[in-house]
Structures are given as structure tokens and as C-alpha cells.
């Protein structure tokens, strides 16, 4: 069985101890850091903006995926490109998704597109070949600590088929409600990576939690 790539979602951490959390992630087997920027418009929650991104940039040693849960993300691509190796935008937030993907790539970042649970894969058909990652939301975006939506497993399989049919190279990432109990099924459905917040940071041993998600066979 292959390893899953794991990216801890910083949203679920204690922001009073952000530096300490980043030190832990730096020492961990995490493949990259997942950073959710929320605007209170596209999603009903506000997370943080550039001052926090600057602080993360200073202390973090892992690659960063900036997950922009914001309306019209094209307004902020240039400024955010300074703080992440990959920028992931929501298909639902982009009127001109193809153009936004090209803008991300022209800024020198990898490009990801996220889909909300209700959004069908059809919106990716003509952009998938340009993507480094597709992020399937397994919860409605905005908050950590929600339950995994089981239909996501079917969606992962269909996405895998789309990627193969189009001869595309995009990674499949699954975000939300991922834990030690469902990670094997997510892997078996065809995911390449998972984003996890509460199952890592609510654990007594985040380093071990990351290891367990990366390799469901070690426990
Ligand atoms: O983007 C989101 C939620 O909107 C996720 O990245 C969560 O931050 C993942 O947290 P858990 O569901 O693992 O607690």
C-alpha cells in the first residue's frame, strides 16, 4: 500500500502558540502545511490575512499550500504568492477559473482547485490538465472539526477516472473530517493526500498522528 501525503491544517491550532506549533510541524513527517484563508463572504468564517501569513512564513520550514476560501481570489493572488508554493482557489469563487489558474502559474506557484461537497466534477473537465492538485472538500468549508461526508469516497474514484481519461497529472487531495478511522478508505478510493486539522492537533501526540495518517498500516 502506498503512503498518503499529509498536510496539517493550521486552522485547528492554538494561535496563541503558533510558533511552537510550527516547530512541531517542522519536525514532523508532514509533507506540507495547509493554510486556510477565509474572508467571511465565500465562507461564513474569517480566519486571518497577511500578518499571520508573514509570521508563518518566518517560522515554517515546510512547503505551504494557501487554500483561498475567498470570493474573487484573483484580487489577492500576487500578494499571497509570496507566502505559498501552491495556491488553491475554489471553482465556485472564480468566474473565470481557467484564467485564474493561469495567473497562479504565471506567478510561479503550483495551482490547485478546490470543490465544495455539492460541486460536480464537470467544472474541472477543461482545466484539469493545467492543475497540480484538485482538493475535494469532504466538509462544507469554513470550520474545522466537522464530520467527513461519505459521498466524498465516490467522488474521489470519479475524479481519479477523470484524471486518467484526460491524461492529467493532478494530485487528489481530500480536505475535512479526515481521521485515523477513515483514512484507509480515503487512500483506497484513490486519494494522494489528505488535509487534517483536529485529528492532528487535538491529539496528545501530533507527530504520531501525522505518522499514522501517512501510513495507516503502522498501527
Ligand atoms: O478547510 C477546512 C475547513 O473549512 C479544513 O482544512 C479544516 O481545517 C480541516 O479540519 P478538520 O476537518 O480536519 O478538523
UniProtKB/TrEMBL annotation:
The active site is at residues 36, 175. A divalent metal cation binds at residues 34, 36, 67, 175. It is an enzyme of class 5 (isomerase). Its EC number is 5.1.3.1. It catalyses: D-ribulose 5-phosphate = D-xylulose 5-phosphate. InterPro entries: Aldolase_TIM (IPR013785), Ribul_P_3_epim (IPR026019), Ribul_P_3_epim-like (IPR000056), RibuloseP-bd_barrel (IPR011060). Catalyzes the reversible epimerization of D-ribulose 5-phosphate to D-xylulose 5-phosphate. This is Ribulose-phosphate 3-epimerase. It comes from Salinimicrobium profundisediminis. The lineage of its organism: Bacteria, Pseudomonadati, Bacteroidota, Flavobacteriia, Flavobacteriales. The gene is rpe.
